[in-house]
Structures are given as C-alpha cells and as structure tokens.
Amino acid sequence: MAKRVGFATRLGAIAAAVGSAVGLGNIWRFPYEAGANGGGAFILVYIGCILVMGIPVILSEFIIGRSTHSNMKAALKRLSPGKKYYLFTYVCIFGSFVVIGFYSVVCGWIIEYLYQAALGRLGGHTPQEYSDMFTALVASPWRCVGWTVVFLLLNFLVMSRGIAKGIERVASVMMPLLFVILIVFCVNSLLLPGASKGLNFLFYPDFSQLTMRGVLDAFGQAFLSLSIGISCLVTYSSYFKDDTSLTKDATTVAALDTLVAILSGVMIFPAVFSFGVEPTAGPRLIFEVLPGIFQQMAGGYIWAFLFFLLVFFASLTSTISLSEIPITFMIEEHNMSRRRAIMWTALFTFVLAVLAALSFNVLDDIKMWGMNIFDIMDYAASNIFMLLGGLFTAVYVGWILDRKVVHDQLTNGGRLKPTVMEPFLIFCLRYVAPVSIFFIFLYLTGII
Ligand code: PHE
After folding, report:
1. CA 385 to ligand 1 centroid distance, Å
2. Which atom, in ligand 1's list, is nearest to the CA of 24?
3. Which of 167, 224, 315 is the best mutation target for the ligand 1 pocket, counting ligand atoms within 8 Å of the beta carbon and taking the most?
4. Using one digit for the tens of pLDDT, what is the confidence trace for 126-170?
5. How far is the CA of 23 from the centre of ligand 1 (A)?
6. Ligand 1 contacts CB of residue 372 (under 6 A)
7. Pocket flag, ligand 1, residue 318 (CB < 6 Å)
8. How far is the CA of 17 from the centre of ligand 1 (A)?
9. What is the pTM of this model?
10. What would the 3-class secondary structure string for the chain be?
C-alpha cells in the first residue's frame, strides 16, 4: 500500500477542504440555479438544506474518513466487516467522473475568458455582444474541446506532484484573495442603477416561484457545492490529524462555502437586472453578466483578469479533490502506482469531458428529456449521484455505524466536551435527511 501523506498543518487541511468546496459550484452554478428557480425562495431552501443535511453529511464523511484514515471502500470494510456496504464506493467513483466531466468544460470556458481578459478584449461591448461572444465560444468545437483539454492537462500535472505540496500551497493563498475580490465586485454591482431589483430577487422569498423541481435543484446544488455524497470529504478527512475538531471544521467549511455562494449572487443579480439579462439564462448566466460589471470599474481589464485567475484556481482546487477520489482508490485498492492511477483517471475524465464539450456543437442534436449531454451530466451529478450518496452516508452513519465511533470522532476520544451537535447530527441523519431525499425521489419518479 502506498504511503499516506498527511496535511502539514491544521490550516492546510481546512484550506484544502474549503478549496474543494468553493469552486464553480458557488460562482457559476449557484447564481444560475437560483436565477432559474425564482431567487429568494430557492435560497431559503438551499440554506435550510445546508443546515440540516449539508453539515450533518459533511460531518459523517469526516467521521468515516478520519476514524479509519483510509479511502471510502477500505473505510466501509473496516467499519462494517463482512458487510457489503463498501460496494457503494463504486457509485461514488462513477459520480466523481461525471462531475469532473462537465465541470472541466466550464473550467475550459474560464480559461478562455482569462485569455480574453489578458488580451484586454473583455471590455467595451454591449450586453448583446457579450451574449454573442459566449454563443460563439460554445459553438466552436475546437475552442471548447481545446480549452477543456488544456485545463485537464494542468489538473493532472498538479496531481502528479502529490497531495500536500500541490493542494495546500494553491488553496491557502488563493482562497482568501478570491474572497476579497468577490467583495469588491459586490460593491461595484450594488452601485449599478437598478441594483435593488437584483437584491429583491435574491432575498425576497416568493414561494409561488418555487416548484418541486426547484427544491430538488436546491438540494442537489447544496450537495455539489459542499462536495458531499461522492466520498470526496472521506478521502480528504482520511488525511486529517486526530486532534482536529471535526465539528468546527465541518461548520467552517459549510459557512465559508455558503458565504461565497451568496456573495456570488450579490455580485451577479444586481447586474442581471441592470443589464436586462434574463435570470433564467442557465449555464451562460455569469459569462454574459460579468464582463459588463468589469466594464463599469476603473482598471476593468485588470480586475477581469484577476477575477478569472482566482476562479481558475478555485476550480482547480475542486477538480484536484475530485480526481483524488478515483486516484486514491486505485492506488490503495488496486495497488497501482500513483502515475498509473493518474493516467487511468485522466483517460476516463478526458473521454467524458470531451463528450460534454462537444454537446454544444457537434453533438448538440443528441438530447434526452430536452437536455444535451452536458446538461444531463450536470443534472445527474448533483441531483442523482450526490443526493443518493448523501442518502447513503446519512443512513449509514445514522443507523448502521457503531454510535461509539461517532461519539469518539466528535469528542476526539473524550478530549473534547460533548456538545449538542451529536444529538442534532443523529436526528438529522436518521430522519431529516433520509425522509426529505426519499420524498423528493418519489416525487420525481411520479409516485406521489
Ligand atoms: N464543491 C465544488 C464546487 O462547488 C465541486 C465539487 C463537487 C468538488 C464534488 C469536489 C467534489 O465547485
């Protein structure tokens, strides 16, 4: 078995978990999902979901990972000897490939915008021209596939340099910077004429706008954004030290992740209304709106470049954590060398990502349920794989896992005082999460 390398510092471990959580899910997907589902009411459901499902499932993944210091499969085998729960790992691995598949296409778009910003071409246009610019990008198979491949090459290059060095360094420096720049953009957005309409859309809960599908989207978005349900945080927390407070880390990760999502909303929606873009524009939303915000700012080119650079790093720390799921699995369960595991992971990822990149152009007539390949991957990843994974994790830790393991992990073997988190966690895992996810699935399949 390969030697496991721990995180150098406690901050490194949290930064890496935050680095995994904060990414395109917050900056690109959250605004477009909120926009498509009517704003305020969606956000309320989203926050509720973070509190009663998100934090409990993060904690559960931490408990599984740190109590065994192993990947999901080995962990489940150790925690439940002789049982077949470990088979669920394969669903997680498949789910992680689907996420990286569509995710790296968006990362490719980010690099294109970074490139355009570097050439100073992101300013001086009308909203319609920005919209045409995005349309031209996705219509070009070469540009779409090309940038996606560039991104994946960078990702796997960083991966091949090992976990502690690559991830920690990037995550600990870039995350705080991203946070600061988001605040600067929010202020600029709020100064736009008609900004209050955007704020109203974002924060006034109009439940007549929220459908059952919207509730499902809010759940899926919360799971994708927190990186839960496909064993990513099991893999990361397997590297955590034994004196880390899991409760503190889980709440920190959830709080920062939610804050970044809300800030992204505050940055985007005043501009959406001010520029007359449709909030329901979908995956293209931020690409149509952001250049307009930069244009309003003194030194807009530089801000644009800096912004896309930071989003690029935020995405990279997320895809690194995503690729680490199959890589650690192959190394530890199939005795592969790290290089070989990276090569296999890269190969599968390339195939899925290229399919997703082509689904806006060459393969755009392949549609199911009105969605192209990219949309199907995007939908299936969060609304099916991650939710199913969340359901499994909640039921496993809530009902099956020995309660002593949970107690030991939350109190670090008795060194920390027990808090209300433990009964709250168990209640949410046993009842709230399974019942709500189960009902959503029943509704979707048309049974209720
Ligand atoms: N949470 C990441 C984001 O919001 C995406 C991700 C999902 C990363 C699952 C790792 C695992 O961008």
Report:
1. 13
2. 12
3. 224
4. 888 889 999 999 999 999 999 999 999 999 988 887 654 555 566
5. 6
6. no
7. yes
8. 10
9. 0.93
10. CCCCCCCCCHHHHHHHHHHHHCCHHHHHHHHHHHHHCCCHHHHHHHHHHHHHHHHHHHHHHHHHHHHHCCCHHHHHHHHCCCCCHHHHHHHHHHHHHHHHHHHHHHHHHHHHHHHHHHCCCCCCCCHHHHHHHHHHHHHCHHHHHHHHHHHHHHHHHHHCCCHHHHHHHHHHHHHHHHHHHHHHHHHHHHCCCCHHHHHHHHHCCCHHHCCHHHHHHHHHHHHHHHCCCCCHHHHHHCCCCCCCCHHHHHHHHHHHHHHHHHHHHHHHHHHHHHHCCCCCCHHHHHHHHHHHHHHCCCCHHHHHHHHHHHHHHHHHHHHHHHHHHHHHHHHHHCCCCHHHHHHHHHHHHHHHHHHHHHCCCCCCCCCECCECHHHHHHHHHHHHHHHHHHHHHHHHHHHHCCHHHHHHHHHCCCCCCCCCHHHHHHHHHHHHHHHHHHHHHHHHCCCC
Dump pLDDT digits (tens) for 305-332.
989 998 998 898 899 889 989 998 999 9
Q: Is the CB of 25 under 6 A from ligand 1?
A: yes
CATH class of 10-185+201-260+280-444: mainly alpha
What are the pLDDT digits (tens) for 43-71?
999 999 999 999 999 999 999 999 999 89
Ligand 1 center–CA 252 separation, angstroms? 16
Q: Is the CB of 227 under 6 A from ligand 1?
A: yes
Q: Where are the domains of the chain?
A: 10-185+201-260+280-444
Distance in Å, CA 418 to ligand 1 centroid: 30
